[in-house]
């Protein structure tokens, strides 16, 4: 593999000029067919070998870009740029427009100028994803809305920072989506670090009156208490390794005005980390990881021995194919374990909306369900259940079905106790669950068998369609596998009961805890 790509070399020279250290005897940037660029080992490497270090002030985030300060803290907040990723998108657009006077001028040329993610697919390709967890999470409309209602008005308010003759080419919706996708596929969470002499302060939020020390990380010093390389929490998180809703266009969209809501990340932590974003990822194959260090640097270290010539892998958190496709534009396929078999992504999941459980349970009860559903949503807050490749029913789904079937007196007791019913299985709950799984399967336009046939002759499928079919087949296999498991367990019990020999069915079994 040729590790002397001209762009890679220019990039490494720029990094070194910014006081990054790169062990060029150990690693090189290579063009790897099917992966874009990646990093490969140039010699056998031991575990805990440092591949490169990046000064903290070289990460690109709302803390390090000088734009928020120039724009003004109050105005930044007034335009809503402190929430979600919109502020970082604007910083990136602005920094790139500064050319060589931007500190990151050597970083932008190596970032991708286009993406294959569903955000950029046409309607025909998107239709192939019908039924999957991808469609509702792309968030293109919300991103567009943020562009129109936040970014553009902010740009137009400051012609001194955003010259009007550059707006039509630099601050466009297309480039907004490009930056959003660069963040979605390549950012990390880099926690705030403190400037010399700064008092401990939990407020890392941009827009604080006294934020200059937060924003100006050129004077940043150590955050040694957190940055112990041997500590267990020293890993710099790949933003995209977070839960699906934690970042990106969806955080931008989903975040409400409640800044105290710690389910959401601090947008100022979201950072582009040059070079660290050059590593590709594969299911369960991480061989290097980014660590905090007590010398104001982020350190990429091997976590396994690596042989000369091997690609060096980071982790993207092993998400399901639906998320891999949406965020990165690729999918992972490896060997599946029992009860599934064949090839797929072991981290795949399928989402089941609670309304399907309500619909199925309603066929088994004469009780009114609305007040129970309202109570459930208040108490348990689960309106979507998730099944993985272990094909086990989520206990919460079983609890909801039980709640809906409770006789009135029992329901009154449940309410009084304020505790959801135990997730105990029996043949009625199994019948409801099977009904739910079948209904969910019907939400896809094709069957498992049809998709398997399509993939058997991949040459007929375009790239996007092949990925879409793999994603939806992965979800359907979970549904079909779970259905099969229930049929095996509960049809046996039902027939035993019929023969009058049953002891188990009436006593019930607990769903997965
Ligand atoms: C963090 S970047 C890694 C560097 C990237 N390959 C490049 O050329 O700049 C993530 C992107 O790399 C590619 N990638 C990473 N892992 C991959 C894999 N296992 N298979 C295919 N593409 C992968 C995808 O395009 C993804 O969006």
UniProtKB/TrEMBL annotation:
This protein's superkingdom? Eukaryota
Entry-linked PANTHER family: N-LYSINE METHYLTRANSFERASE SETD6, UNCHARACTERIZED PUTATIVE METHYLTRANSFERASE
Q: Where is this region: Disordered?
A: 226-266, 491-513
MF annotations from Gene Ontology: protein-lysine N-methyltransferase activity
UniProt-recorded name of the protein: Ribosomal lysine N-methyltransferase 4
Similarity field: Belongs to the class V-like SAM-binding methyltransferase superfamily. Histone-lysine methyltransferase family. SETD6 subfamily.
Compartment(s) where it occurs, according to its Swiss-Prot or TrEMBL record: Nucleus
The EC number(s) attached to this protein equal 2.1.1.-
Every copy of the SET domain together lies at 25-317
Q: What InterPro entries does its record include?
A: N-lys_methylase_SETD6, Rubisco_LSMT_subst-bd, Rubisco_LSMT_subst-bd_sf, SET_dom, SET_dom_sf, SETD3_SETD6_MTase
Q: Does the keyword Transferase apply?
A: yes
């Amino acid at each position: 593999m040729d590790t002397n790509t001209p762009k890679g070399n220019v990039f490494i020279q720029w990094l070194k000029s910014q006081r990054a250290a790169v062990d060029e005897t150990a690693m090189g940037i290579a063009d790897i067919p099917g992966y874009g660029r990646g990093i490969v080992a140039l010699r056998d490497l031991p575990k805990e070998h440092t591949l490169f270090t990046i000064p903290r002030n070289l990460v690109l985030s709302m803390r390090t870009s000088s734009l928020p300060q120039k724009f003004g803290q109050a105005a930044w907040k007034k335009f809503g740029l402190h929430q979600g990723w919109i502020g970082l998108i604007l910083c990136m657009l602005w920094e790139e427009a500064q050319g060589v006077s931007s500190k990151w001028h050597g970083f932008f040329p190596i970032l991708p100028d286009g993406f294959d993610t569903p955000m950029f697919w046409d309607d025909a390709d998107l239709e192939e994803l019908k039924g999957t967890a991808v469609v509702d999470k792309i968030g293109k409309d919300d991103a567009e809305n943020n562009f129109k209602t936040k970014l553009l008005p902010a740009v137009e308010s400051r012609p001194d920072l955003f010259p009007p003759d550059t707006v039509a080419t630099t601050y466009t919706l297309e480039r907004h989506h490009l930056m959003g996708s660069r963040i979605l596929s390549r950012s990390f969470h880099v926690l705030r670090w403190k400037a010399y002499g700064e008092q401990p302060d939990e407020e890392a939020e941009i827009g604080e009156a006294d934020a200059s020390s937060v924003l100006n990380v050129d004077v940043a010093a150590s955050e040694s208490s957190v940055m112990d390389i041997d500590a267990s929490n020293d890993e710099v998180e790949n933003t995209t390794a977070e839960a699906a809703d934690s970042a990106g266009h969806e955080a931008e969209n989903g975040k409400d005005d409640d800044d105290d809501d710690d389910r959401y990340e601090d947008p100022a932590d979201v950072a582009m980390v040059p070079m660290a974003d050059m590593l590709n990822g594969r299911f369960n194959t991480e061989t290097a990881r980014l660590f905090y260090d007590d010398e104001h640097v982020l350190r990429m270290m091997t976590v396994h021995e690596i042989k000369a010539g091997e690609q060096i892998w980071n982790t993207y958190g092993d998400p399901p194919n639906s998320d891999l496709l949406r965020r990165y534009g690729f999918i992972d396929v490896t060997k599946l374990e029992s009860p599934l078999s064949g090839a797929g992504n072991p981290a795949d999941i399928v989402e089941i909306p609670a309304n399907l459980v309500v619909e199925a349970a309603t066929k088994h009860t004469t009780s009114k369900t609305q007040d129970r559903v309202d109570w459930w949503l208040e108490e348990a807050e689960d309106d979507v259940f998730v099944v993985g490749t272990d094909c086990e029913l989520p206990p919460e789904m079983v609890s909801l079905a039980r709640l809906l079937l409770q006789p009135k007196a029992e329901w009154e007791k449940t309410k009084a106790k304020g505790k959801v019913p135990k997730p105990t299985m029996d043949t009625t709950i199994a019948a409801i669950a099977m009904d739910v799984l079948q209904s969910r399967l019907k939400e896809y336009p094709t069957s498992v068998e049809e998709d398997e046939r399509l993939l058997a002759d991949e040459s007929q499928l375009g790239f996007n369609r092949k990925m879409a079919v793999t994603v939806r087949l992965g979800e359907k296999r979970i549904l079909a596998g779970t259905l099969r498991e229930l049929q095996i367990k509960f049809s046996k019990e039902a027939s035993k009961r019929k023969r009058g020999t049953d002891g188990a069915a009436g006593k019930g079994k607990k769903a997965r805890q």
